[in-house]
């Protein structure tokens, strides 16, 4: 994936003064162009233009209606790619020619001249910070600008936010179940929905709390730490130690050389058979596996991590690994650990840990009991939770398919709704109350309680006075008149900030780095009550509107809904 050349400069609000910023590069994925949209966006653009409405000033909200995975929170992601997209939005002559071919031959030529001249210099984008914990109905982004132009942004924006937020949320949920101290590795590239899904998932899993990826392309593009060792194929490709030709290994400090590392390993393997915990556990281990481990250790003596379940974990894999690890220890190297990819992960990890501790105690090898244990094999939230309940000795988890494909829920369901045009609030009605939109240009706030946890999000009209710390405010459910509560916030946080001012004389927020977004995400999750975060029966987080906005929603609802007539 190549980034396009930067085009548009701006200024950044750093809290003290406006400063010039580097130009914003184009989208990471070169497929993200103005043509990455639905045909009806162009048909509507023509109809707006034909009616003389294309420059009407419109306000759209991008939000979602329901939290994914049966949970009660979502992590917002994809904002940076949206800003990269609009910063470089321009239809080429070739793209305009293609649009001409797709539309009716009755479309006037002047419309295509209009398409050639549009960009996003008259568009403003306000958004919640990427990596923030967010909730249904609260706008993630507010997009203001000429209605025809903003409609052309709808599909790519929804596309860029939907998957990114879904995967980031999935990663955050896995992190919550695994706990803060476990290493989480994303191994999903081969099972992802194509190259774009794979690279995007790696990026957003890291944002959501994973520590590393196996995806080299994502490592190069985004600076994500890489992890990976070898597969079962590498182990089964060997037949025995006799085929190892280069047997020498220099010590870690360079002071000496072991001329026959194979013999050193075999010596340690024989010693292991004399351990108290080895009796009846293993006799002759698989020699092809041993050869594979020795070869890998000779190639990567400072990063030796072995997959131990190709043949038999306890009777072959573990003792073979330990023999190689002890030989490496003699040469000043410390083995990284093992990976379990099948079987009873809780039981096998505990048995492996016991064996490591026995070696440390009986052979007096300091630190051997703390050798790392990684588990993989189609892990998901449920299996992580089950492992926690059973008790295990796994230090890191490699998670792939269920993580990157969002197997338990394939889509988030973001929507893009018109809430105001030419300063006139608009509402979308439905028999399904969850699909009724909240009209007008709004501000959003998060209210925090005495313990520092978020209590409620509240939306208010743009011109309403904001909530204040220590002052009681009435928070109302947008549609249910009986659900209401007074809140005295100890801290008030305004959620939406300007990330693209267009030609307006406003400073824009800087686009943070991936590391900064990840750090922000972790801090956000820490500020949520655990009952909102838990897997089973999480407590719903309250999303509300001000009393004034509540009254206006219902006034507009009654005003717009047709009155039936009974005969």
From TrEMBL:
PTM field: Transiently phosphorylated on a His residue during the reaction cycle. Phosphorylation strongly increases the affinity for substrates and increases the rate of nicotinate D-ribonucleotide production. Dephosphorylation regenerates the low-affinity form of the enzyme, leading to product release.
Family statement drawn from the similarity comment of this UniProt entry: Belongs to the NAPRTase family.
InterPro entries, A to Z: Aldolase_TIM, N/Namide_PRibTrfase, NAPRTase_C, NAPRTase_N, Nic_PRibTrfase-Fam, Nic_PRibTrfase_pncB, Nicotinate_pribotase-like_C
Positions of region (Disordered): 1-29
A Pfam family recorded for this sequence: NAPRTase_N
Physiological role: Catalyzes the first step in the biosynthesis of NAD from nicotinic acid, the ATP-dependent synthesis of beta-nicotinate D-ribonucleotide from nicotinate and 5-phospho-D-ribose 1-phosphate. Helps prevent cellular oxidative stress via its role in NAD biosynthesis.
Cofactor(s) demanded: Mg(2+); Mn(2+)
Lineage summary: Eukaryota, Viridiplantae, Streptophyta, Embryophyta, Tracheophyta
Catalytic reaction annotation: 5-phospho-alpha-D-ribose 1-diphosphate + nicotinate + ATP + H2O = nicotinate beta-D-ribonucleotide + ADP + phosphate + diphosphate
Compositional bias segments (type: Polar residues): 1-19
CDD domains: NAPRTase_A
Manganese in keyword set: yes
Top-rank taxon: Eukaryota
Keyword Transferase tagged: yes
Keywords attached to this entry: Glycosyltransferase, Ligase, Magnesium, Manganese, Metal-binding, Phosphoprotein, Pyridine nucleotide biosynthesis, Transferase
Nicotinate phosphoribosyltransferase C-terminal domain mapped to chain residues: 441-552
Record-annotated Nicotinate phosphoribosyltransferase N-terminal domain positions: 35-162
Signal peptide region: none
Gene Ontology biological process: NAD+ biosynthetic process via the salvage pathway
Annotated ranges, domain Nicotinate/nicotinamide phosphoribosyltransferase: 336-437
Major enzyme class: ligase
A GO term from the CC aspect: cytosol
Name recorded for this polypeptide: Nicotinate phosphoribosyltransferase
Pathway(s) per entry: Cofactor biosynthesis; NAD(+) biosynthesis; nicotinate D-ribonucleotide from nicotinate: step 1/1
Family annotation (SUPFAM superfamilies): Nicotinate/Quinolinate PRTase C-terminal domain-like, Nicotinate/Quinolinate PRTase N-terminal domain-like
